[in-house]
Amino acid sequence: MYVGIDVGTSMVKAAVFDASGRQVAVESRPVALDIRDGFVEQDMDEVYAAVVEVLATLASGLTGPVELAGLTGQGDGVWLVDAQGRPVRPAISWMDGRAHELLDAWMASDVFGSVFRRTGSAMFPGCPGPVLAWLDRHEPKALDAATTALYCKDMVFQRLTGVRATDVSDASMPFLDPRTRTYDDETLARLGLSHRSGLLAPVADPVAVGETRGPGLPPGTRIADGPYDLPACALGAGVTRPGDGLLIVGTCLASLVATDVLDLEGGEPAGLHISTDRRGQWLRAMPAMVGTAALDWVLRTTGVRHEEVDALLDATPPGANGVRVLPYFAPSGERAPFVEPRLRAELTGVSLETTRGDLVRATCEGIAFAARHCLEAAGLTGDLAVCGGGTRSPAWLRLFADVLGRPLRVVEGEVGARGAVLAAAARFGVDLDVAEWTRPTAVVEPDSGRAEFYTRGYAAHLARLGEARGRARAEAAGGRAGAGAGAGWAGGAG
């Protein structure tokens, strides 16, 4: 038996696979997000307890010994712990927006662009650079009390094994030089964090390993830490050939393209270059802030149940009867394929004749347009795999195929957990049939007529987005000017 653990933003999951890659069992537990005034935090003890609970439940039903376990989880944010791996304060989520004013200032200077050219990572409010800089200014005692500023899965790994480490994928945002695969001192200096460099965990290349000390899995179980959820899903979906891509329709709408070319000079600074377990290969990632979370908000607001989505999509025509959604719902704005901390969602074309189906379809179309934008920016040229909770809707999958104008290789099950197992197997020298483990379960083909219709819709989406970005930049400039004049607008919870 092989166990994969995926510590997600709102759900902790653990899955058991047999030697052929067949998923034989899965356990999950929800974990809470504390969202208030632009702050988004999580209770580390609650997250760790959920991990232990799902592992203990799985272990009690195993029919054979555990060969190894792999760990993955949400990226970014800051998880401050002491020497024993215990929390110093609540974890700050990747969805957090408290550092947006700081990022505004960096974007108005040369800091933002210069960090991207050095690391290949475009910072956003919830990534460790801005969050640590914000804490250094507003909560220095929390940093003084901490031993390590970890990422989510690394916190869990230290509690399970006692090993303090991160991996090259998590370290990619935003402190790692992707050429040397080591922390970049110049980046730390530009962010004003040189005096906090000791908080960064040692980088295991490619992943750290240890043995569990309990509870959860049997003591002594071999376990590997990483990569984090985006590259783990790429491994679990078999996306390793340059040009091939993966779309993850989850809480975060993530677009990844495998590449063996590292270009840090061209194009708009956005997304990131994730270092992988294979030297000389990266994932060009465009992880948009909001995917299924945007649809969930619309469903809650309209009173539509998840099981009604497919019927509403089938009953509503492409174009949603003129309703349009720019799906930028995150409190911290957007980070891919551009960075606009003040960008917000927009709903237009609504009248008294608008139906719930129009609102749902317009939201699904807006998210699909955002996915196309991200995949084009990431350089997709080959096959495209798709996974995530959104793939449970057949009608939405067909819509994605039509908007993207290409076939979708659907990979079902706990893809991140599967990728974590494959990374652990490679690290421990266990030979698994990767092709069999990553075989797609279905292929969804686009409809040529609808694809042509959505090509025109995509152009209109980009035009509306350009106007919205202009308004967001004007607001940011006005906020900086007001602050300079002593207006005192802190913005959010700053």
TrEMBL record:
It comes from the Bacteria. InterPro entries: ATPase_NBD, Carb_kinase_FGGY, FGGY_C, FGGY_Carb_Kinase, FGGY_N. Keywords: Kinase, Transferase. The keyword Endoplasmic reticulum does not apply. GO terms for molecular function: kinase activity. This is FGGY family carbohydrate kinase. It comes from Streptomyces albidochromogenes. Residues 1-203 form the Carbohydrate kinase FGGY N-terminal domain. SUPFAM superfamilies: Actin-like ATPase domain. Belongs to the FGGY kinase family. Pfam families: FGGY_C (PF02782), FGGY_N (PF00370). Gene3D superfamilies: 3.30.420.40. Residues 276-426 form the Carbohydrate kinase FGGY C-terminal domain.
